[in-house]
Amino acid sequence: MVSTINPSIKIIAIVIPGLVLSLAFDILTPLVFLVFLLVVTFLFSGII
Amino acid sequence: MKKWFMFFIPLSLFSLGLAWTSMLHTDEKYAGGELLVHFWWIEITTGSLQVGISLALRSMCFIALTLLFALTTDATKLMLSLMQQLKLPPKLTYGILAGYRFLPLFKHELDLLRQAHQVRGVSRTKGVKGRVQRLKRYMIPLLANAIRKSERVANAMESKGFTGSRNRTHYHDIRVQKRDWVFLASMVSALALAFYLSYTLGYLNIFGRTF
Lengths: 48, 211
What we know:
The complex is a heterodimer of chains A (about 50) and B (about 210).
Chain A: H1 7-21, H2 28-43
Chain B: H1 2-24, E1 35-39, E2 42-45, H2 46-70, H3 75-84, H4 90-119, H5 127-159, H6 178-200, E3 205-206, E4 209-210
Antiparallel strand pairs in B: 1-2, 3-4
C-alpha cells in the first residue's frame, strides 16, 4: 500500500531513529522499538 | 502483509546468523559474565549472549525501518519530494527518475535482442566464456539504444522549457502536512520512550557503559 506521508519527512523519521538506535548496546531498547515498529507497520499500514 | 513477511523472514535469518557469529567472537571487553555453554571450542557467556541478542534485535529494527520505507514509498513522489522539500537539483532528480522509468524498457529490449539473435540462429554457447560472449553481443545494442533514448528525452525536456533551474513551478505539488510532523514526532518519541524505559529499569548500555 502506498503511503500518504511525505517521503522526505519519512526519510528523516527513519534515519534519525536508525542512527540513534545503533548506539544502544542493550537488549531492551531495540526490543521496545522493534515492537513499536511492528505495531506501526501492521496497524497503520494504510497511512504510513 | 504477505510481501512484508516475504522480505522480513529471510533478512531476519541473516540477522540471526549475525547474532550467532558475534556471540562466538565477542570482544573480551563485552564477553564477561557466567559461562553458559562450553562445547568443543564454542564458549558462550552471558555477556556474549547479550551482545548477540542486542545485535540481532538492532538489525531487525533496521530491517523493519527499511521495509517501512521501501514497501510504502512511491518512487515518483519520493523524487518530487526530494526536489521540493530537500532542494535536490532538478537535473539530478529528473535524471534519476528517467533512469528508473527506463529500467523496465531495458528489460523489454534485452528480451527482444535475445529473440532476434535466436531467430537469426546465433549459437548459445554454454559456460562462462559463452556468457561473456553473449553479454558482449547484448551490451553494445543496449547501450546504443539507451544513449538514443536519453538524448530524445533530453531534447523533449529542453523543447518544453526545462533549464534545470531550481526556481520552477511543479505540476504535482508535494507538501508537508500536519500528519507528516505527527509521524516524525511519534517515531522520535517511541525511540525516546525505549531509551527511557531501559534507563529506568537499569538496562541502558551505550558502547559498553551501563547507565
